[in-house]
Amino acid sequence: MTDLETIQTYDQTAEQYQNLLTRHKPDADLTNFINAIPAGGHVLDLGCGPGNSGAFMAQSGLIVDATDASSEMVALAKKSYGLNAVQQEFHQLSAIKKYDGIWANFSLLHATKSEMPELLGKIHTALKPNAILHLGLLIGTGEQRESLGRFYAYYQTDEVNSLLVAANFTPTHLRTGVSTGMSGTEKPFMIVTARA
């Protein structure tokens, strides 16, 4: 189940979050994801937030479904970008071999570590054979609530690799870096790409 305090934080800070995230062109990770999807392919923005990434996917000709547990984020995604966004928690994903790609960019880090194997299984089931998963997570250990009240699970790269392989994914690319989020603190992160 998605953490209620995390959802409330996003509901209360949705417009601030949108201002922080909004770009005028896709970054390299999103460009690589879009380019890896067949023309006119069907993708899911899982934990879409205010919808900026999903909008770039749609502009590139992809069919985009978008979900988020925050009703305010879903409202922004619809209002700002006209996305087909619905309020849904991760565990409610029930599609079967529907998507050519799933974009889970710093969204699944709000699920508990104990939930991750099941969620990756649902994502694998939702993807077509050989479809692509983009996964953004924070690097670290354990689980904790940060200063704004959001719940985070932290991972090591080899840990994520093992989880993906256990869920029948083939990891294909990894990059790491450091970014400053809404809380203002620098956090190390990983971007992992895998094939179903």
TrEMBL record:
Q: What are the record keywords, sorted?
A: Methyltransferase, Transferase
GO biological process terms held by the UniProt record: methylation
Parts of the chain that traverse the membrane: none
**Source organism superkingdom:** Bacteria
- GO molecular function terms noted in the UniProt entry: methyltransferase activity
Looking at the Swiss-Prot or TrEMBL record, what is one Pfam family this protein matches?
Methyltransf_25
This protein is called: Methyltransferase
Query: Organism source for this protein?
Result: Paramylibacter ulvae
Q: Lineage, please?
A: Bacteria, Pseudomonadati, Pseudomonadota, Alphaproteobacteria, Rhodobacterales
